[in-house]
Write a structure and sequence with these properties.
Elements (H helix, E strand, L loop, with lengths): L12 H17 L9 E6 L2 E4 L16 E3 L4 E3 L8 H10 L4 E5 L2 H7 L21 E2 L7 H10 L5 E4 L3 E6 L2 H22 L11 H14 L6
Parallel strand pairs: 6-7
Antiparallel strand pairs: 1-2, 1-5, 2-3, 3-4, 5-8, 7-8
Helix pairs in contact: 2-4, 3-5
The structure holds zinc ion (ZN).
Length: 225
Amino acid sequence: MRETEPASIPDGTGQAWRRLVATARRTHDEGLVVGTSGNVSVRVGDTVLVTPSGVPYDRLGPRDLVGVGLDGRRLLGTAEPTSELPLHLAVYRATGARAVVHTHAVHATAVSTLVDELPPVHYMTAALGGPVRVAPYAAYGTPELAGATLAALEGRSACLLRNHGTVAYGEDLDQAYDRTAQLEWMCRLWLLASSVPGRTPALLTPAQLAETAGRLRRYGRRTGG
Ligand SMILES: [Zn+2]
């Protein structure tokens, strides 16, 4: 793989790209996206590597590497960046994100059409910063969608996009991926619990979520309980 990378790729970037491709394939293999939907990015210094537009993840290779500056200026590669580039860049500019994952996960997208906020049915809500908001609908790839996403992410590391999908960010690709998978799982959980006729799911209180947030701070990522 290394021999076929363009000579101008800086140290560390080739490895970051391989991790990005692996994460993108994982979103497909684990059912969070279908076809060429969804996109993944990772920040290396002030360069953002991002999946290219319209290339199936199983065909992504070293030649598809695309790197842009935080202002969107192309720094590396010749492929066309994902149409959701404005959304990814907005998240990097406004937060400490090192990686961003966007999917059209089916349960999360279903929930985005039903509520303005995912009801806190599970304590992992606290791991995402609190109840996950739904950003109002805006057409894909627009600055309006990027702005709505940032507002929904205030104090959170993930949000839903109405009639569209998920956005999650993290300190690295694994964390952004894990938050996406947790969000999809919680959406599935809420849909399942709330579909029982005549019953309403119990929700966690703000105090219960705050208690969990405190435990997460003390125990870090070990949220297994
Ligand atoms: Zn999308």
